[in-house]
């Protein structure tokens, strides 16, 4: 387990962790699981391309919520939409996100 600091680079396709001894590239499309386990902790699971073993990593960063959203829309596009506290779901019209009231509130958590 690598424990240490390094720089991350975030794009719409991946996050790269620039650790001097163990760099890591996480392409959003290759992730099996994602979770925002704390406000600044992004956790993901994937199969290691070198040995096929399941690997779980955590990135502790103020950008964790951004990583979670980018990974979610890329790796899990069919996931049901989440509802906000007022019962509205996000929609997209043009370049700006808007909010639309749902016909019926979705049961359960997203």
The average pLDDT score comes to 75
Uncertain ranges: 92-110
**String of helices and strands:** EEEEEEHEE
Class by SSE composition: mainly beta
CATH class: Mainly Beta
Number of domains: 1
CATH architectural type: Roll
Oligomer: single chain
What does the largest sheet look like? 3 strands, antiparallel
CATH superfamily membership: Pleckstrin-homology domain (PH domain)/Phosphotyrosine-binding domain (PTB)
Question: Fraction of residues in helices?
Answer: 10-25%
Could you explain the architecture of this structure?
The protein has 1 helix and 8 strands, in the order ββββββαββ. The chain is mostly beta strands and 110 residues long. The chain has one domain (7-100): Pleckstrin-homology domain (PH domain)/Phosphotyrosine-binding domain (PTB) (PH-domain like, Roll). The chain has a 3-stranded antiparallel beta sheet, with helices on one face. A 3-stranded antiparallel beta sheet has the order 4-5-6, with helices on one face. The chain has a two-stranded antiparallel sheet with strand order 7-8. A hairpin with a 2-residue loop joins strand 4 and strand 5 (41-47). It is globular and about 35 Å long.
